[in-house]
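We treat protein structure as text, and this decision shapes the records that our systems exchange. The tokens are whole numbers drawn from a learned vocabulary of local backbone shapes. One such record is reproduced below, unchanged from the form in which we store it:
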Amino acid sequence: MPAPRTVLLTGAAGGLGTLMRELLPDYGYDLRLFDMRPIEGEPDAITADLADTEALREAVTGVDAVIHLAGISLESTFEKILKANVEGTYHLYEAARRAGVPRIVFASSNHAVGFTRAPRGDDPLIPAGTPRRPDTFYGLSKSFGEDLAQLYWDKHGLETVSVRIGSCFREPTSVRMLSVWMSPADGARLFHAALTAERVGHTVVYGSSANTRLWWDLTGARALGYEPQDDSEPYAAKLIAEQGELTPDDPAHTHLGGHFVNDPPIWPY
């Protein structure tokens, strides 16, 4: 697939959106920015909610692809998650379909499979095909997004790469994050690969760097052309000294979803 020239970036004012605004232009992309909050220094950014279907129609007109990061990025009430992440993602897909946009890169999450046990010792890495087990309403909304992407591929031929992102920050901030961290530079590499790979249909991949303590299988992401360059291990000694090693019985460390699998407490698991 030729490299898309103009890419709509939703959620452009958020943490990940801000990082991608800095990095993706180096790959030759002309970013069209969309967020419900104004973006300082970006007078041409579209300031609108995902419920504003007219604004979405204008936003997707003439773009070659969409990176969809917008929505609530943490757990919230079902009503808020429904409006922002479920209905909002539907509105985005429908606008893209009507405009003939060929591909979307959808920011899914490890919380779509949060109740999956993390590998230990010689356990195999977690594949992208593992059954979804959302740990929150937020994770449930990402499961919906993956299913919506599959529907729009099967029914309308709109391609999607759903990227189950772990944690994308400039550096990891917890011992758990050593296993799920994706550096901003690797994030840009993965989004670029997802935008340019050929014939993706609907493909689900994990988004992380090549971490020494990696929990999930990056085979699918590599098949897109992604070659991660970073590793969280240089941050390990400092974080372990401050926070201690992972314990074998703490749900924050034993499941892909971290503490969300036990917040609020559930039955012993």
Remarks:
- The two ends are 45 Å apart (CA to CA).
- Residues 34 and 155 are 26 Å apart (CA to CA).
- The chain has a mean pLDDT of 93.
